[in-house]
Amino acid sequence: MRRRALLTSLASGALAGLAGCANSSTPREALTAGATREFVASSPDAEVAGTWLAEEFRARTTATLSWETPPGALSAYVARHLQGAAVDADAFLGVTPGALATARERTDGLFTAASGYGQVIDAYEFDPEARVLPVTRSDVCLVYDETRVAPPTSFAEFFAPGRAPLTLVPDPRTDALGLAFFAWSIHEFGLREACERWREFLDAGAHLVASSADARTAYRNGLGGVLVGTSTTPLFAARDRLDLERYRVQFLDGDAYRHVVGVGRFADAANAKHVDRFTRFLLEPNVQGRIAVLTGSLPVIEDAALPEDFDRYVRTPDATVSPDYGSLAASLGDWLAAWQRTVTAARA
To answer: Which three-class secondary structure state does DSSP give residue 104?
Structure first.
């Protein structure tokens, strides 16, 4: 991967130095993209990632880019599609394997093939119908405060009841990262044993938090000593000049769980030419590098233009467990129902 500017200059100058050269006198067409709120506003600075992408895309093309973040994220567009109503957007950025598996056949006819698949590393593709184009990836793992705790080294150690009161977990019902971690626990133990371990862990005082962003904020404010996060979480700490001793990374059994986020091109997009330009734009080397820094993620192409000191803050696991889309599509509803029962039992 290519290296260029320092991490600090990329982060602090996120909106500076736009590379485009589009003629400002050219009438502009409007492109509308839906997105998860976490993606568009994944930085503590208000919507910095979404703002940078919109301004950079405008600078390179004759189109404007505006974001929609409807409640329910992708499910809002699925509902419109099922009602026979216009989707009223050109693309959606924030499709995960879990979200796509949840919608399953309800997305028939919603998406069409996105442009740019040839640039993505094969291992990060997850849509068997090649409609959703991977844009970012993360290695799900633990983040811990080495001044307060000795981290668990295995999944079995993670579930030790004594660790629970110091552990923050995003809720799988409302957070994609939390769902990925729950799926990983099922991969390790099977559904029945995983849910039993989770029931005991929650009953022992683990903190179940609505979203990854809320979990990071609570952790930053001093709650807990272990956070379910990603190997790139220290990027936020470094950029914000936080104490890196509180943002150490721990892989369970040396492994991480792969979490991929993609963009889907809606079949009835009003601006087909520019939505194809948009999906290809998201995979350009310097855009992939900037997205990685602004969202705390990893690129999905070989030659992303990452900062020179990126690797200083990001560790690599020995191996990565990949989600199996077929299993998710077949079983995710049952898994979430089991999780609901687990939470209810723990709170009884």
So the answer is: helix
Total structural domains within the chain: 2
Say yes or no: 265 and 249 in one domain.
no
User: What is the model's pTM?
Assistant: 0.89
The CATH number of the domain where 100 resides is what?
3.40.190.10
Chain-centroid distance, C-alpha 282: 15
Identify the CA nearest to 197 among candidates 168, 160, 223, 232: 160
In this structure, the strands spanning 132-144 and 226-230 are antiparallel
The pLDDT tens digits of the residues spanning 306-346 come to: 999 999 999 999 999 998 899 999 999 999 999 999 999 99
User: Helices marked H in 147-284 — which ranges?
Assistant: 155-158, 176-189, 191-203, 212-220, 233-239, 272-281
CB 67 within 8 Å of CB 91: no
Range of the domain at 230: 139-257+323-347
The residue among 297, 91, 288 whose CA lies nearest residue 180 is: 297
DSSP state string for 15-42? TS-------TTSPPEEEEEEE-HHHHT-
Q: 105 with 161, same domain?
A: no
Based on the domain organization, do 11 and 132 belong to the same domain? Answer: yes
Whether residue 113 sits in one domain with residue 27: yes
Reference 78, options 45, 100, 54, 53; nearest CA is 100
